[in-house]
Amino acid sequence: MTLKSKYKATMLDDVPNIFEAVFQCTLEMITKNFEDYPEHRLKFFSLLRAIATFCFPALIKLPSQQLKLVMDSIIWAFRHTERNIAETGLNLLLEMLKNFQQSAFCNQFFRSYFIQIEQEIFAVLTDTFHKPGFKLHVLVLQHLFCLVESGALTEPLWDTATVPYPYPNNAAFVREYTIKLLSSSFPNMTAAEVTQFVNGLYESRNDPSEFKKNIRDFLVQSKEFSAQDNKDLYAEEAAAQREQERQRMLSIPGLVAPNEIQDEMVDS
């Protein structure tokens, strides 16, 4: 990662060689299970993120099969139960979504991967083992819902050859797809409850805190999460509350000893 970050765009021409030399062989090593070669895992996905950040034009030039390997790798990463690897995969996914949205390949990329990404994110979001990734799951979904309403996608996300119904737009298609996806995932919830939730996501897509609240409320009322300790779903708010209390204490002269302030500065 250090080399990629240091030389940035000057290494664009070398990315295909890097992929050929290390990508597929490393991927085969680390995807057999979630335990072997722990020292390779995080560094492999950190390398991918550096390439996506600093050498994105090289990713666009990859053959479709190699790009599919990249996307499969990202999905495998955020499925991982190791928090650092899952978070690296989710942050990498966000980089890819933003970069492709701003590229000339926006339609082509999202036509290939939008539905798969949405499906996979909802899968980990609704899996209680992945609760620490809640904040990033929400950011990915918010990006997707904003995208379909933005008008940036000018071609259908559905397969026009196999779907006879002509949806009026991509937002209508994704709305119906999401309702069907969640209805099958949460059979204990009524169709009306699921539809209300999905409509709420569309309505709150431009309000990050309300969008997150809608998703959290939906999870908490589901059978899978109702009997769980859901503190990870409130981690961001808890951290903000702790910081607010710390600032309040620092504002009161003499309440916090100087050596404690110094220790905090060293820790940060």
UniProtKB/TrEMBL annotation:
<keyword id="KW-0813">Transport</keyword>
<dbReference type="GO" id="GO:0005049">
    <property type="term" value="F:nuclear export signal receptor activity"/>
</dbReference>
<comment type="similarity">
    <text>Belongs to the exportin family.</text>
</comment>
<dbReference type="InterPro" id="IPR014877">
    <property type="entry name" value="XPO1_C_dom"/>
</dbReference>
<dbReference type="GO" id="GO:0005634">
    <property type="term" value="C:nucleus"/>
</dbReference>
<dbReference type="InterPro" id="IPR016024">
    <property type="entry name" value="ARM-type_fold"/>
</dbReference>
<feature type="domain" description="Exportin-1 C-terminal">
    <location>
        <begin position="1"/>
        <end position="227"/>
    </location>
</feature>
<dbReference type="Pfam" id="PF08767">
    <property type="entry name" value="CRM1_C"/>
</dbReference>
<dbReference type="InterPro" id="IPR011989">
    <property type="entry name" value="ARM-like"/>
</dbReference>
<keyword id="KW-0653">Protein transport</keyword>
<dbReference type="InterPro" id="IPR045065">
    <property type="entry name" value="XPO1/5"/>
</dbReference>
<dbReference type="GO" id="GO:0006611">
    <property type="term" value="P:protein export from nucleus"/>
</dbReference>
<keyword id="KW-0539">Nucleus</keyword>
<dbReference type="GO" id="GO:0000056">
    <property type="term" value="P:ribosomal small subunit export from nucleus"/>
</dbReference>
<protein>
    <recommendedName>
        <fullName>Exportin-1 C-terminal domain-containing protein</fullName>
    </recommendedName>
</protein>
<dbReference type="GO" id="GO:0005737">
    <property type="term" value="C:cytoplasm"/>
</dbReference>
<dbReference type="GO" id="GO:0000055">
    <property type="term" value="P:ribosomal large subunit export from nucleus"/>
</dbReference>
